[in-house]
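Pasting as-is:
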Amino acid sequence: GRNYNFKGVIDGDHHHISNLTINMSDGRDNTGLVSFLYQGTIKNLGIESGSITGSNKTGALVGRTMYATITNCYSKADVTGVGDVGGLIGMFNNTTLGNCYVIANVTGTKSVAGLFGSANASIDASYPSYILNSYVNVKVSASENGAMLSGWDEAPHGFDLTWENLYYLEGK
């Protein structure tokens, strides 16, 4: 839950974590099981239950990503934060995500959603992002920019984000 970069590989080998509790409501950014996944990979890992509380860039699995890969992961932990709050990832930058799902309550103020609080590509416009074969079944509560998949999405602004085979159910 601190502001450290993780560049390695976490392979959960299809195991899950139960009762994960993280409370970083003291104003620090990048809150999640991994605070900042930079050029790293998380795969085959689930969060079966828990509660994640942070400030900005808060997600159950990762607070913020950059040049990362996340595959075959899920979360059923509830997430609460301020800005860029996602059920799986708080701020999603120039990353590939596939075969993931979220079943949770996600609560925040601005840019709040089931998968990501925000999906950005403007930090490095030459490196595309891919969001593939994933779904959410969430209840989202937000004052501004609340959505099922991503609270803020830069794709309409000309940046390269590919969204394919995504589904949502509202309500948890």
